[in-house]
Amino acid sequence: MKFTKKYLALLTMAGITTHVLALDKNGQYAIKGVGNASCQQFVKVTRNDEPQKFLFAGWLNGYMTAHNQHLKDSFDIASWENVETLGNYLIGHCEKNPQLSFFQASTQMLSELYPKRIIEYVGAENASTGQQSQKIYIQVVQRVQHKLTELKYYSGAIDGKLNEQLKQAVAKFRIDKELPSQTFFDQQFLHALLMAN
């Protein structure tokens, strides 16, 4: 599949300028691997839990890494979303837009993520519960603190620190939203807080 000027415009809106894209004289480049697969095929493989789903996940991780490497003022295009969460977003998008290729759907999703990207790495906090542990960017912790403050769950400093007051606010939010208690900042909690209206 070829990259066309239509997707150049989409990438430009997302902040990627033409001087960082490796295009031929016609403004095109080749899409490799499962990026050429249809949205319908991606949904089928994923819903049926076929081994090929890992090809899509690996391709998406590579595509995001390329964005991270080449986007100006970007450290991580996906500030908190893991590949499983992003795959779930893509399933929904592909079901609504089955005519798209996996590349096209992924490009559209990354355009949506761009405004919330991590621009600069300033550190990460270790969020652990029992035996599970994960690193959360300080900027994401600050977003959580800010959102929980808006919702009247948290009244502490917006400093990116995982303090006891924040842990209590997260626990109360989880109870109120009937979210299972897994790790401190799991994908389900972050989605419910940061993505829901």
UniProtKB/TrEMBL annotation:
Protein name: HdeA/HdeB family chaperone
Keywords recorded for this protein, A-Z: Signal
InterPro entries: HNS-dep_expression_A/B, Peptidoglycan-bd-like, PGBD-like_sf, PGBDSf
Record flagged with keyword Electron transport: no
Residues making up the signal peptide according to the UniProt record: 1-22
Domain Peptidoglycan binding-like per the UniProt entry, residue ranges: 141-173
Any Pfam family the entry gives: PG_binding_1
